[in-house]
């Protein structure tokens, strides 16, 4: 599971969960805190998109309270929308093209290449 937070200039934060773990409201709020500190943001507009069958972490009470406290605005994007999320086009496509044809010895090497 990978959480990618990015803006028009590129990737801001890449959060990779260890195998077997899943994202929940606590983990999601920790990621948002790291984003706030990484970019020194007082407020933010974010588009959240999840491909999950469970309750998305951004709809949990704890996360909603976090978003209200820091006055972050959310632009919803339905999980099964026929429209592409911006990340589908502007982020994942370039990453896939960059990784195409490359071989990796292990997961750490792959993660390092994605971060680069």
From TrEMBL:
PANTHER family according to UniProt: MARINER MOS1 TRANSPOSASE-LIKE PROTEIN (PTHR46060)
InterPro entries listed in its UniProt record: RNaseH_sf (IPR036397), Transposase-MT_Hybrid (IPR052709), Transposase_1 (IPR001888)
Name assigned to this protein: Histone-lysine N-methyltransferase SETMAR
GO molecular function list: nucleic acid binding
A Pfam family per the record: Transposase_1
Natural source organism: Plakobranchus ocellatus
């Amino acid at each position: 599971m990978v959480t990618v937070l990015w803006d028009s200039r590129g990737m801001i934060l890449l959060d990779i969960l260890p195998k077997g773990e899943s994202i929940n409201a606590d983990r999601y709020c920790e990621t948002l805190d790291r984003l706030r500190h990484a970019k020194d943001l007082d407020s933010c507009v974010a588009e959240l998109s999840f491909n999950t069958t469970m309750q998305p972490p951004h709809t949990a009470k704890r996360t909603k309270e976090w978003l209200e406290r820091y006055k972050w605005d959310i632009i919803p994007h339905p999980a099964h929308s026929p429209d592409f999320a911006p990340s589908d086009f502007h982020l994942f496509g370039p990453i896939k093209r960059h990784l195409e044809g490359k071989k990796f010895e292990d997961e750490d090497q792959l993660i390092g290449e994605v971060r680069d």
